[in-house]
Write a structure and sequence with these properties.
Shape: globular
Helix content: over 70%
Number of domains: 2
Number of helices: 14
Largest sheet: none
Strand content: under 5%
CATH architecture of the largest domain: Orthogonal Bundle
Number of strands: 0
């Protein structure tokens, strides 16, 4: 065949995903940035500016208030109980749903998503109807001098309920995409069920688990609706940081309110930084898992 008769392959030219002009892209990006600045950035800056309006000394004095310190301690205590509990239960539920077939699997998935479907206020009201003085279990609890509503146990229960889906919803899709081949191989080689879980399953989902824990912790510290219903708003005893911010603001103690709000916002920013890191780090783990399976 002559050289002139040969058909040379055409070089592959990558096609653009969109056909918008550079000006259109700039306008769209500008609108998105302005929207985020107005909705997220400016309110966040306002919180810190209001907290520092009378100087650093007044800000630190606000944190010296006994009721403020009690609210901070209670918020950290509730998160320290609710987050590990949801991490363990969410991990167990995800493992069961993704790795096994059993009757009631769809019902379990529905129950996991239920807190996303109902108002947090309704979640708190459910506990009042169950454990309140005139609730179904109220007389029995009073007989044994057990107080759940308007006490720390009720706040923990309400926080656990509204934050329960975060860990499970991060783990279930990843575990389902990974399949069960590695676990089956480990069992075939003689590994026990628990050994397989700790040496195979858990390492494959560790970054997604940490990501879900971060989201769960952020929601636990900032929860307002359900906690407001079950707490009773007792200063120094059952007020978490969001509830204490509301009380200070209603009392026109704006510096104190924004001081506590700045602390809560700072914790949220730290969570966001950790979340961004895990998203970057978890992307590589997920891609590797997809290539293996």
């Amino acid at each position: 065949m002559a050289m002139s008769d040969r058909v040379l392959p055409l070089a592959h030219t990558p096609e653009r995903a969109t056909t918008e002009t550079a000006a259109t892209k700039a306008v769209l990006i500008g609108i998105a940035v302005l929207f985020l600045a107005a909705i997220l950035f400016l309110p966040l800056v306002t919180v810190f500016m209001e907290a520092l309006r009378k100087g650093w000394g007044t800000l630190f004095e606000s944190f010296g208030d006994p009721d403020t310190l009690a609210a901070i301690r209670l918020t950290l205590l509730v998160a320290a109980i609710a987050v590990p509990f949801n991490a363990v239960v969410g991990l167990a539920a995800s493992w069961a749903i993704a790795k096994f077939e059993f009757r009631g699997k769809n019902l379990l998935l529905t129950l996991i998503d239920l807190p996303f479907s109902i108002s947090p206020v309704i979640s708190g009201l459910v506990y009042v109807l169950l454990f309140g003085a005139h609730g179904w279990l109220g007389p029995w609890l009073q007989h044994y001098n057990i107080q759940i509503i308007f006490a720390v146990p009720g706040i923990v229960l309400a926080t656990v309920l509204v934050t329960f889906p975060f860990v499970a919803r991060e783990l279930i899709p990843l575990m389902q995409s990974q399949g069960t081949s590695e676990e089956e191989t480990a069992l075939t080689l003689g590994a026990s069920g628990w050994h397989t879980f700790f040496r195979v399953t858990l390492p494959n989902v560790k970054w997604a688990l940490l990501y879900g824990v971060l989201l769960c912790n952020a929601r636990a510290m900032g929860e307002f609706g359900a906690v407001s219903v079950v707490s009773g708003h007792i200063r120094g005893l059952t007020n978490t940081m969001p509830l204490h911010i509301e009380i200070l603001y209603n009392e026109y103690n704006f510096v104190g309110a924004f001081a506590v709000a700045s602390l809560l916002a700072g914790l949220a920013l730290l969570t966001l930084l950790a979340k961004s890191f895990l998203e970057w780090r978890f992307a590589g783990e997920l891609a590797a898992a997809a290539r293996r399976h």
